[in-house]
């Protein structure tokens, strides 16, 4: 419009204007508001080319004056039209952009540049020619509108007609084929499967058996259909001792009372920790066998049920530790150190009650609050009663299939978020595997439909994964990670786990990497709570929800992604606050029993919306929505826990200073990365990708590089397993106060070194280029 006004002003006596031939161009000298147009006639009249000519400098003949005046009028009209079009398009563009940003509150979400992941961040897309851009509020609404509780119900119904989906068996392969066909029908960009050849331990030709031996007679206590995979096979005999949940603290309480646990058969109830961890604690205490039951105080209506389980203290195929099971031939004859060497079986609480009635020792501790009447800790010293445990499990070779479908990113297809769910189950597995599989299929359908029909163009890829052999310890997921361990950490930036997403209705259980806390919190604020007339899921968990985050268990498929591969994860689910879902891992985990959950399909839809929003936000924004500064807070929290032991460590000739300096280096590295993001050109894809890659490395760099992934697969210093972890270091420091003589000083020194240099290495990697690192501790 300014150009148009200038043209009209010059025509009617304004400031003189110089002209160029055929085009409008800014002058290189003088007032840049003027334009120059040189006509051919001016050149012919001897005017100096490139020199401004005033209108009265050379008076042309009258007939030429009329011609020039006509030409000038036409030029002015053209300029006026051009100015009007420019002004109109600019105005309409602003209005269109504003209308897209309206989201009830009138705010437009934009990816931050001045402060990373600030509270009021908004997302603004690049102004590029082509189809209309979907802004985040539109995208979020589109996802919510498309999700269907009816389709989720139809998907879950696939589990209703079968009693088992055991890994590698015909039912498992059948549903794998169904998922593959569904992915294909959704027109995903790629659909494929991975075959893995693994060793599984399954029930033998006859059921395992638990018996009571007394006065030379054997009485069968129970012979359940369920079994525990990877138990030691054979028969063992020992005196029964009840150890509550089988926690280390429970064992220590009995041992402090002088109770001998050598050559005993330990009885513990399900819950608190995984079965594999309970078995490991029992073996460490000297037991020869272990029995687990579902206590009525924790699991309602399960008196006659014995759950399935596995006793491998690890994930993946325990007979190919650290290797992907792509075939049978290329593996050394080794086995996982996490395999137990004691017999393990599950029994019903009804059978446990019968056993307690035959025991004549002390009653269970009051604080154990067992739901089994007549609970006894152990036998009297004069009793000759023992328990015999016979395990007939056998090893088999099985082929399993992982099914994948991918929506490729339009800008960075080699960077992807993975959404996964376990497919197999020992029983019907409605809650254990059915819910997650149903949500997986719904998200694949909806997001693919958004891409194909609504113009959504994700910057990065989304992979949908259906795992097999999850019941045996995330075998399918772990074998895939092992097969691509050299590259996955540099390409997959988040794993979203859908397993057991609905086990109740009045509470939420969350496990996640700190990198995803901020995104998860904002997502919950934007998803309506389906059990209430108003309010969001965030209102359900409360502002202090981070304090209630639950550590990932070994039987959670997200665990190896985080602790083995260094990929951020989130795993969440609806549950009942006061009690566990009773039928998980049993033959009664049916669709009919699950449907007793209040508003089941609405909760499934809400879970799908949470997972879908996380995936879309991670593939939509310019910068990866990973809050790398959270780990600075986590390190500071550990430093505060270590600080009280500063003098105790110094008395050993050691110091915590270097560890504290490394934490400071990491904090400075996160500050530097935040500044780099704030000062970067968001439109420069090369710069943006480099910054995102630095963010992606944060999780991976907390895997200790000083340990062998074969011998110590879970190397993460926050969430791994072993003496290299921050938690193990803290426990060793605590021993300096409670049992100083038991502290191995050399081990403590090694722990300090491993943790310090892992944190320092993470700081150096986060900074980026090596010339920007600061090695002055």
UniProtKB/TrEMBL annotation:
<dbReference type="GO" id="GO:0007166">
    <property type="term" value="P:cell surface receptor signaling pathway"/>
</dbReference>
<keyword id="KW-1133">Transmembrane helix</keyword>
<dbReference type="GO" id="GO:0010008">
    <property type="term" value="C:endosome membrane"/>
</dbReference>
<dbReference type="GO" id="GO:0042470">
    <property type="term" value="C:melanosome"/>
</dbReference>
<dbReference type="GO" id="GO:0031334">
    <property type="term" value="P:positive regulation of protein-containing complex assembly"/>
</dbReference>
<keyword id="KW-0564">Palmitate</keyword>
<dbReference type="GO" id="GO:0031623">
    <property type="term" value="P:receptor internalization"/>
</dbReference>
<dbReference type="InterPro" id="IPR007365">
    <property type="entry name" value="TFR-like_dimer_dom"/>
</dbReference>
<keyword id="KW-1003">Cell membrane</keyword>
<keyword id="KW-0675">Receptor</keyword>
<feature type="domain" description="Transferrin receptor-like dimerisation">
    <location>
        <begin position="656"/>
        <end position="766"/>
    </location>
</feature>
<dbReference type="GO" id="GO:0010637">
    <property type="term" value="P:negative regulation of mitochondrial fusion"/>
</dbReference>
<dbReference type="GO" id="GO:0005769">
    <property type="term" value="C:early endosome"/>
</dbReference>
<keyword id="KW-0735">Signal-anchor</keyword>
<dbReference type="GO" id="GO:0033572">
    <property type="term" value="P:transferrin transport"/>
</dbReference>
<dbReference type="GO" id="GO:0042102">
    <property type="term" value="P:positive regulation of T cell proliferation"/>
</dbReference>
<keyword id="KW-0449">Lipoprotein</keyword>
<dbReference type="InterPro" id="IPR007484">
    <property type="entry name" value="Peptidase_M28"/>
</dbReference>
<feature type="domain" description="Peptidase M28">
    <location>
        <begin position="402"/>
        <end position="597"/>
    </location>
</feature>
<dbReference type="GO" id="GO:0043066">
    <property type="term" value="P:negative regulation of apoptotic process"/>
</dbReference>
<protein>
    <recommendedName>
        <fullName>Transferrin receptor protein 1</fullName>
    </recommendedName>
</protein>
<dbReference type="GO" id="GO:0043123">
    <property type="term" value="P:positive regulation of canonical NF-kappaB signal transduction"/>
</dbReference>
<dbReference type="GO" id="GO:0045830">
    <property type="term" value="P:positive regulation of isotype switching"/>
</dbReference>
<dbReference type="GO" id="GO:0035556">
    <property type="term" value="P:intracellular signal transduction"/>
</dbReference>
<dbReference type="GO" id="GO:0055037">
    <property type="term" value="C:recycling endosome"/>
</dbReference>
<dbReference type="InterPro" id="IPR039373">
    <property type="entry name" value="Peptidase_M28B"/>
</dbReference>
<dbReference type="GO" id="GO:0005905">
    <property type="term" value="C:clathrin-coated pit"/>
</dbReference>
<keyword id="KW-0325">Glycoprotein</keyword>
<dbReference type="GO" id="GO:0099072">
    <property type="term" value="P:regulation of postsynaptic membrane neurotransmitter receptor levels"/>
</dbReference>
<dbReference type="GO" id="GO:1990830">
    <property type="term" value="P:cellular response to leukemia inhibitory factor"/>
</dbReference>
<dbReference type="GO" id="GO:0030316">
    <property type="term" value="P:osteoclast differentiation"/>
</dbReference>
<dbReference type="GO" id="GO:0070062">
    <property type="term" value="C:extracellular exosome"/>
</dbReference>
<keyword id="KW-0472">Membrane</keyword>
<comment type="similarity">
    <text>Belongs to the peptidase M28 family. M28B subfamily.</text>
</comment>
<dbReference type="GO" id="GO:0098794">
    <property type="term" value="C:postsynapse"/>
</dbReference>
<dbReference type="Pfam" id="PF04389">
    <property type="entry name" value="Peptidase_M28"/>
</dbReference>
<dbReference type="GO" id="GO:0009897">
    <property type="term" value="C:external side of plasma membrane"/>
</dbReference>
<keyword id="KW-0254">Endocytosis</keyword>
<dbReference type="GO" id="GO:0042803">
    <property type="term" value="F:protein homodimerization activity"/>
</dbReference>
<dbReference type="GO" id="GO:1990712">
    <property type="term" value="C:HFE-transferrin receptor complex"/>
</dbReference>
<dbReference type="InterPro" id="IPR046450">
    <property type="entry name" value="PA_dom_sf"/>
</dbReference>
<dbReference type="GO" id="GO:0004998">
    <property type="term" value="F:transferrin receptor activity"/>
</dbReference>
